[in-house]
Design goal:
By secondary structure, the chain is an alpha/beta fold. It has one domain: Vaccinia Virus protein VP39 (Rossmann fold, 3-Layer(aba) Sandwich), CATH 3.40.50.150. The protein is 36% helix and 27% strand. The strands form 2 sheets. A 7-stranded mixed β-sheet has the order 3-2-1-4-5-9-8, sandwiched between helices.
């Protein structure tokens, strides 16, 4: 059974899937420093690593990972987001699923890529998700999490409502140090973290944390 937060996020992303795919078709929203953290994550993995894009959405990051040698597959809660992923990036396998209970055996992946996929999860669900990431990673595997930095819960959806899309959604900001503590509590060793100020049209700062199982 889905949680209240999952149901809210599912309704929102099913609604905005096409607009999201149009607005964020690839990595152009990322700064070089953001991509450098992803590249560092990949460099920590073995050759030809199996990587799960956990919360892959419209699949925009799958080509980036694959171009750097990763064997990628995606999972996402929203079937509409995955419809866009299969249309635009159909060469990569994707499936519907919840991050709270990944339908994967223990120790399956070399890497878990969680790029802004935990930002709508309250703290108690975040810990369950990170514990699932730990479970499906092989010993020595790595996880990377990207998210908005801060310490507030933000109501989002204004920009979509301006486009005629009725969306109600909350986003949890977190400091890099706070996320590092969550990873440590779930059995990870934090090996890198980055936090930066908002740039350009961004309204919030951004953060990335990498942990090793």
């Amino acid at each position: 059974m889905r949680t209240e937060a999952e149901n809210t996020a599912l309704a929102a992303y099913d609604t905005v899937a096409e607009a999201y795919a149009e607005t964020f078709p690839d990595t152009r929203a990322e700064l070089p420093v953001d991509l450098a953290m992803i590249d560092h994550f990949i460099a920590l993995l073995p050759d030809g690593p199996r990587v799960l894009d956990a919360g892959c959405g419209t699949g925009r990051m799958l080509p980036y990972l694959a171009a750097r040698g990763c064997q990628v597959q995606g999972v996402d809660l929203s079937s509409e987001m995955l419809r866009c992923a299969r249309r635009d990036h159909g060469e990569f396998p994707t499936r519907v699923g919840t991050l709270l209970d990944l339908d994967e055996p223990d120790s399956t992946f070399d890497g878990v890529f969680s790029w802004y996929s935990t930002v709508h999860s309250p703290d108690e669900e975040l810990r369950r998700i990170v514990a699932e990431f730990h479970r499906v990673l092989r010993p020595g595997g790595h996880v990377v999490l990207g998210f908005q930095s801060g310490s507030e819960v933000i109501a989002v959806g204004e920009r979509y409502r301006e486009r005629g899309l009725d969306v109600t959604l909350q986003r949890w900001q977190r400091r890099a140090g706070d996320m590092a503590e969550v990873l440590a509590e779930c059995g990870f060793t934090v090996v890198a973290q980055m936090e930066r100020a908002a740039v350009g049209m961004e309204r919030e700062g951004q953060a990335v944390v990498i942990g090793r199982r």
